[in-house]
Design a protein that fits this description.
With 306 residues, the chain is α+β, with helices and mostly antiparallel strands. It has helices at 2-22, 29-42, 104-107, 110-131, 140-152, 228-240, 248-251, 257-269; strands at 46-47, 52-55, 58-60, 77-86, 89-98, 157-158, 164-166, 177-178, 194-197, 200-202, 208-219, 246-247, 273-281, 287-289, 292-297, 300-303. The strands form four sheets. The chain has a five-stranded antiparallel beta sheet with strand order 8-7-9-15-16. It binds manganese (II) ion (MN) (2 copies).
Length: 306
Amino acid sequence: MIESYEKAGKIVANIREEAIKLIKDDLLILDLVEFVESEIIKAGAGIAFPCNVSLNEIAAHYTSPANDENKIATGDLVKLDLGAHIDGYIADSAITIMAPGDDLEDKFDEDTLDTNYKLIEASGAALEAAISTVRDGVGVGQIGKEVEIAIDKFGFKPIANLTGHGLDQWNLHSGISIPSVNDKSSTKLKEGDVIAIEPFVTDGVGWVGDAKGTYIYKFMQDKPFRMVQTKKVLDEIKTNYPNFHFSARWLTEKFNPNRLNSSLRQLSQAMAIYPYPALKEKANSWVAQKEHTVIVEDDGCKIITK
Ligand code: MN
Ligand code: MN
């Protein structure tokens, strides 16, 4: 089990570093997510969730729809979040990169650039503070407190309604939540727990809400449908993605995108699948995120996605 986590962790770390090198002005987001997802398969792992590439005020849950023409531009805060699994044992990691480009200094004034660099730095400092707090018996509220303190030193805010999470075999979100604020939770970590820690940092209000667009879904339960197309879409989802989040883009290999969207809406309404809309910072302020998956040990933790 530990070996599977470690293998998944190495794969995620390697692909993350390769993907970072591709991030630059004018890159299609679709090319980046397809690179990551195809490398996960090539490495002999499974895709634990669609590769997320969320820009600027979008905090999370953006992945390209089919034929996505959106591009990365110079100076964008690119949050790359990827996950792979070996036999259902998942490694989940994210990093924020400021997209390089020749026109960086023309595009942004010095203060804005400074703030954006510091957002990235703060997300790293917050993750480090959290990781150095993790050990057997520590309360998750204590981790949140340390994250909050680390971010406060930069004069920024954690996003309070986004949390890290426990991982179980075939389950990206087990019961445990790892807050980025001191939520006074009495939940304690224990040796052997596997958790993803992912502080999000912003100079806005520190809260996210739904943005326009839903690109990621998860299978919930089988339901009867009269419409043949909807039935077929649900069958496809049930067969291929019974456990993990999936991208609407993956289904467009078999289904016409427009009709697919109407089926996905129906399936969501019937709670056969659960929709995860893209998430945006409430004040439209920019957001940085950093994430590692760790295994809790007696007196610390082991980072598997380093
Ligand atoms: Mn993640
Ligand atoms: Mn995560």
